[in-house]
Specification:
Blueprint: H1 27-50, H2 56-78
Length: 82
């Protein structure tokens, strides 16, 4: 009798598709993290400019610096990952 595949088998048992990593974060998680982390930051940036506590260029430079540092740290942490 042929062995049937169980519908409850975890997806991690199957090999990943070409070009995809095992345990990779999906689009849903990325969108959720983007919205929950960037929305408060955007609100604070807007309020700083709106109340004239900062110039728009101050906020833009802060955003660019944050993106740059985040990218450098991300690349450093994932460089030689097993």
């Amino acid at each position: 009798m042929a062995q049937s595949m169980s519908a409850s088998a975890p997806a991690s048992d199957s090999p990943p598709a070409e070009g995809l990593e095992r345990n990779a974060v999906g689009l849903t998680e990325v969108l959720f993290q983007s919205i929950t982390h960037m929305a408060p930051a955007a609100a604070v940036a807007y309020s700083r400019v709106r109340t004239r506590a900062h110039w728009p260029t101050d906020v833009a430079v802060g955003v660019a610096e944050g993106v740059f540092v985040g990218e450098v740290v991300h690349r450093a942490m994932t460089r030689n990952r097993p």
